[in-house]
Specification:
The chain is of the alpha/beta class and about 290 residues long. The protein contains ten helices and seven strands. About 35% of the residues lie in helices and about 15% in strands.
């Protein structure tokens, strides 16, 4: 299995693996991912080099967000969130959709009551399985090899042992800015329909200005050149998720609970327009919410 079987968006999972591998080598690392090196693939280092060249130009000060710091904060933030969710004895199911090259099932400790699902395309999960051959997950681990655009991915998840009547925690990491607005609404509807009230959700999303500001072009052009442009951002993620039956809050990297001493830029008030933002969204399926 080679990376040629992965589509452009999926290949960005190799960038994430390369970022996590680099973070693990830092003395001030926010987490340790001993499996990231295996998951980088043959093009991960090249993708990371392109992002570093765009982010930290040799001839001028950095104006783009620091991708290495952002990725480190995002990984640690969602590590902590999933671990807190799993510590709840009533929370029995965790779903990563898409799973990409994530290794949390292997590198984090999990309570015995957790059933852990990874949903992604067959090529992604096959590549990952090959790279992690001989490594045992630390949790009751189920993979669901299906495209999230497929009409039957929900049924495939249920066939793998997922129970929609029980509380669950879902992580949509590194997904929403790659799919159009209509598909984002459709995805949130489909996820909400699988969640019992009180279930938890987490995701990351950029604001609309992050897609249009001239100084963001350096980074946006890199992803567009790879064939996976950023196509959607939302200035009010709380309202976006509320429209699908979720009660959430959004924090930005650099705010106290999403900083870890690593965010290098100022965090401006939400009312200030025309600045780039990323949001970490966390919350719950609203009690009494109807099926969307």
């Amino acid at each position: 299995m080679t990376t040629t079987s992965l589509n452009p968006v999926e290949r960005t999972a190799l960038l994430t693996a390369a970022l996590r591998s680099a973070e693990t080598l830092r003395e001030d690392r926010l987490y340790s991912d001993p499996y990231a090196e295996r998951l980088v693939g043959d093009i991960g280092p090249k993708l990371l080099a392109e992002v570093r060249a765009a982010t930290f130009p040799a001839d001028r000060p950095r104006s783009l967000p620091s991708t290495p710091d952002y990725n480190a904060i995002r990984t640690r933030f969602f590590d902590d969130y999933l671990q807190r969710a799993a510590a709840d004895g009533q929370m029995t199911q965790i779903v990563l959709a898409p799973a990409g090259m994530d290794s949390r099932a292997y590198r984090l400790p999990w309570p015995e009551h957790i059933r852990y699902f990874e949903v992604d395309r067959p090529a992604v999960l096959a590549f990952k399985s090959e790279r992690l051959e001989g490594v045992s997950p630390r949790v009751d681990h189920r993979t669901v090899a299906v495209d999230l655009t497929a009409a039957d991915w929900e049924q495939r998840l249920i066939a793998a042992g997922y129970d929609p009547s029980l509380p669950s925690t879902w992580l949509l990491e590194g997904l929403l800015y790659y799919i159009p607005e209509a598909d984002t609404h459709r995805m949130l509807d489909r996820v909400a329909a699988l969640m019992a009230p009180g279930s938890r959700i987490a995701a990351d999303i950029v604001n609309s200005a992050a897609l249009t500001l001239p100084h963001m072009r350096g980074l946006l052009d890199v992803f567009e050149g790879w064939g996976c442009p950023w196509v959607y951002g939302d200035d009010e993620p709380e309202q976006l998720f509320a429209g699908h039956g979720f009660d959430v809050r959004a924090v930005q990297p650099g705010e106290p609970e999403a900083d870890f001493g690593r965010w290098p830029d100022a965090v401006l008030d939400r009312e200030i327009k025309d600045v780039r933002r990323v949001f970490f969204v966390t919350g719950r399926r609203a009690t009494g919410a109807g099926q969307s």
